[in-house]
């Protein structure tokens, strides 16, 4: 026995007979209460197991104790997790370290621990040296000086996941009363294990909640909340030490196009790779965070504007790389915006907001990086105010449809009209169309705007045909409209409502809108074309589409960009571009429209080049749709008069 163990003396002084039984129950009780103390104290599962084994041997005076867990491997091995020995010499310890046990129901698995696990009940073996069933363990019993054993299953969630084994030198140990108490001890131990495990699970759940609250799930980088908190404390330090600091907002260029073309998975991979490269690029004391979709922030303590600009330029340079997208090579990179404390803001929110404004400015201007300026904020608030007004104007149907005629160059007859949206702002007057269309495109308002224009155009087209005028009306669509899943249904419903024939309505799509997402646009265009309408490529010549792409598009006409048409008289290059575009269009069997025809000279030039159709201020400016009929009657009358003379 352990010479230091509390049980040693008691053991030596016990009485034989009934006194012995009482003594044993007392010992078991003492073990139970000492076991409970261990249970309360333990913080780790391993400490609990070891503590319990030691209590059993030291307080209870038993010969040895171990806890083993049933493994669900092929051998059904029993893994010794902790043990304690009455006489803790090296030889005996070696024994445990090399002990191989199984709980399988085979010839090696008939020992009490295995039986207890399989049956889920305590298994007792007394006078083991006299028991032939225990023969394989006789040598062990002699060596470890035990003569009786008791094994108690450890039940966790209705499953005997392990065993507590207690052995004693008394061949008659473990009577019913003692086994009942030791069984309770095993149950307490199992409860303690399960309690510690759920505490760990709870802690892990708390840690993962914290991770979710402060870290970006995709990149693993600190998120906006954590970045803001760190920035706040960095500002406090900078203020105290009278030092500057800079915030960089970085965004992957063309991210949305990549997302739309390649799908979320590839876009996520790209974001992660940007995140990793950013982490590699930051130096000690700096912080990189992921603050939005493919949007990152960098905190640069002590940096002034000059140093921050240099750092931003270097990052933009490092991140510039081409990416293969659907057979096209799209160049991705970073746009960076810079704001500095204290000049651009003295709190975290304004610095982040202003760095972001600068980033958008860099993106818009196609520059790598931009520093915040007060003008950016003024422009932004004006832009925001206009956006709010535009939403209202769309909802309250304040937008108007204007129409501009398209004239057949050979016959001079009206060949159709283009519908152009107008917005008369209650305070600011007419807002330039390109300006508010751009705002609508960047704010998600383009879908309702297009739907309103379509409703007005279908209604107008019906009115014309009802009055016996048969020219088609074309409607401009934006790049975003091509991604509107409701567009086709909207068109079908309008065709049905007004009984519109497919040849009454046409659509115009700018070449640059198509090139934003060439593959997606091709699919969308095919769906629109299936309605039987004619399609125009607008502003042709500035969108860099390739001939092979053009060839694949199911379009009927191209509209030469007005910049070339207007420059024709003064620029031989523009004149050559117009000429070759007309030839190209005709070779591809497409109608060619020239827009921006402002003078008689331009008209005559286009007639000479055999261009098909002309549109421009020379013939008519865009006019309110309900003036068009009067204009047309007047024009036709003039044409007739010219003809008869
Ligand atoms: P666009 O589709 O190329 O339309 C032609 C633009 O050129 C119109 O400008 C028209 O007023 C102008 N224009 C026509 N002839 C001449 C000319 O001889 N000289 C000059 N200097 N300009 C001429 P607007 O109406 O300001 O529209 C600008 C652009 O806004 C349009 O270019 C089109 O891309 C877009 N837009 C107009 N209406 C809509 C719409 O309902 N939906 C969408 N998504 N975009 C629209
Ligand atoms: Mg157009
Ligand atoms: Mg155009």
Structure at a glance:
By secondary structure, this protein is of the alpha/beta class. 50% of the residues lie in helices and 22% in strands.
Sum up the structure in keywords.
Beta-Lactamase, Alpha-Beta Plaits, TIM Barrel, 3 domains, 23 strands, 22% strand, elongated, binds ligand C2E, binds magnesium ion
Number of strands: 23
- How would the global form be characterised? elongated
- CATH second-level architecture of the largest domain: Alpha-Beta Barrel
Helix content: 40-55%
Largest pleated sheet: 8 strands, mixed, barrel
Tell me which ligands are bound. Answer: ligand C2E, magnesium ion
CATH C-level of the largest domain: Alpha Beta
Mean pLDDT: 89
Strand order of the largest sheet: 14-15-17-18-19-20-21-22
What is the total number of structural domains?
Answer: 3
Q: Please, how many helices?
A: 23
What percent of residues are in strands? 15-25%
N-to-C terminal Cα separation, in Å?
Answer: 134 Å
Q: Provide the low-confidence segments as ranges.
A: 1-16
Please tell me how large the radius of gyration is. 42 Å
Describe this structure in words.
With 645 residues, the protein is α/β, with parallel strands linked by helices. The protein is 50% helix and 22% strand. The protein has an 8-stranded mixed β-barrel, surrounded by 4 helices. It is elongated. It has 3 domains: 196 residues, GAF domain (Beta-Lactamase, 2-Layer Sandwich); 149 residues, Alpha-Beta Plaits, CATH 3.30.70; 261 residues, Alpha-Beta Barrel (TIM Barrel). The protein has 23 helices and 23 strands. The structure holds ligand C2E and magnesium ion (2 copies). The site of one magnesium ion has 4 residues, from loops. The site of one magnesium ion has 4 residues, from strand 19.
